[in-house]
Amino acid sequence: MDVRRRPVKPLYTSKDASAGEPLKQQEVSSPKASDALPLPLYLTNGLFFTMFFSVMYFLLVRWREKIRNSIPLHVVTLSELLAMVSLIASVVYLLGFFGIGFVQSFVSRSNSDSWDIEDENAEQLIIEEDSRRGPCAAATTLGCVVPPPPVRKIAPMVPQQPAKVALSQTEKPSPIIMPALSEDDEEIIQSVVQGKTPSYSLESKLGDCMRAASIRKEALQRITGKSLEGLPLEGFDYESILGQCCEMPVGYVQIPVGIAGPLLLDGREYSVPMATTEGCLVASTNRGCKAIFVSGGADSVLLRDGMTRAPVVRFATAKRAAELKFFVEDPLNFETLSLMFNKSSRFARLQGIQCAIAGKNLYMRFSCSTGDAMGMNMVSKGVQNVLDYLQSEYPDMDVIGISGNFCSDKKPAAVNWIEGRGKSVVCEAIIKEEVVKKVLKTEVAALVELNLLKNLTGSAMAGALGGFNAHASNIVSAVYLATGQDPAQNVESSHCITMMEAVNDGKDLHVSVTMPSIEVGTVGGGTQLASQSACLNLLGVKGANRDAPGSNARLLATIVAGSVLAGELSLMSAISAGQLVKSHMKYNRSIKDISQVITSS
After folding, report:
1. Structural domain of 342
2. 519 neighbors 488 (Cβ within 8 angstroms)
3. Do residue 215 and residue 299 come from a single domain?
4. Which of 16, 80, 185, 278 is catalytic?
5. 505 included as an active-site residue
6. Which tens digits make up the pLDDT trace of 289-332?
7. What does pTM read for this prediction?
8. Is residue 16 among the annotated active site residues?
9. What is the DSSP string of 399-437?
10. For 28-70, what is each residue's pLDDT tens digit?
């Protein structure tokens, strides 16, 4: 078939021709991507290629460092901003060179007004080249309108494979694993994805918690387009968490559990389970347990045991609020209030009510024993009973909230530091001089001085509230996760003051920790889960103690304090001996090359 190009409009006028000027067509050069720099083309290409891969490598290294250091990726430094600008510039150039520049150079190669293609194979090549760039690609580039070519049957083209990029330069996306699903499950998944079936209702509709979690997980992957391949689903009893531990589960997180000990406390040995992902923590606590063991063990004392809840009520005047304060704090009325409170549970026993006024608002801090339960729900039910009773006596009382933050739960507060909340425990030990030198690798005098300047003076300089210690929250969090406690209550449970003093003519070390707000339980919540229940059983405090209600929870609190004592002793010794960085580089740093791991995967 004969394919002809439309004649190009002459770039000279008839007036110029009549004047005898030479009839010479003026060449018009379109701007090219390679004109970005006044350099030869091969040098320009090499420069932009080098800039592209160098900037990509720099940004990937910086992103890997941010991920390791838990720095948000959207926090950009000036160097990263300049790198991104350079990356954009190089991408624009490369796209222009291989895209628009190629079309322009292809079209402009001919200087004649028209050309003829008589060969059928040559015509096929032109049509195929245009089909790769999309309809009217060349015409759009030149700014003209070309009628569409006649429909022809063309042999199917094999799409070009994208260039492979080294895995060290780009992140390999995680594939979305599509499990084998039945037709019924597929239908339910589509319903969840389309928003017709609420995700939270799957358990009640299906009557199968495992199946509901599986369908929810698959629907989540399809909605977000993100893979949950590393989040396990099998091997967990989802029935055990229904309605009490977690809603809308899609799997469970695996946290390794290590054992520190034996911890010799009050004449008994305990192997302390610690769930953590922080390297060196279990090893350090274990060394502290060894130092305590060979020195004769540690002793603990339970100072008080009472969970708190503080509602806030409001009156029209401060005078009326004060009247209720006097009524509540009057010993003559305590028996009546206690009777109303205690009927909520056979374990709840009201211990006292502490009031505070802010204008016409009254805060009443109820304290009660709760048996072997941590007791937040128990004390809340008792408080509600008392409020109902007071409402009949003071009808103008406006109950603002069952919790007014004077409790204070899951927040650092001076009232917990001073008055205590949950279990208040003090734990002590005398570490012999030879143990300090051989096991802890330091000196008694050095430990005493470090404790004074770091845990006491340094914390005071920082304005610490209950934080007069080295790392009590590390041990508390690890034991809490292993034994099914509320990890958020680590905030007040980690209130601790660590004291160190030279005794026996300065030869031995007396060390103690005082923790006024250890909030633990051995029944309810996460303590009933299989893994956490096993850890409680290891400590000998699983479930409720029928003979002495509350004794298991109190024993667990002393074990937490004893573990904190071991952790404080070991960390302070490491800092005193200058071993902190060395030990963390040995136990808390991966020896694997992340880039090699990514490449091998």
Report:
1. 311-401
2. no
3. no
4. 278
5. no
6. 999 999 999 999 999 999 999 999 999 999 999 999 999 999 99
7. 0.70
8. no
9. EEES--SSS--SS--HHHHHH--EEEEEEEEEE-HHHHH
10. 455 555 555 566 766 777 777 788 888 888 888 887 877 877 6
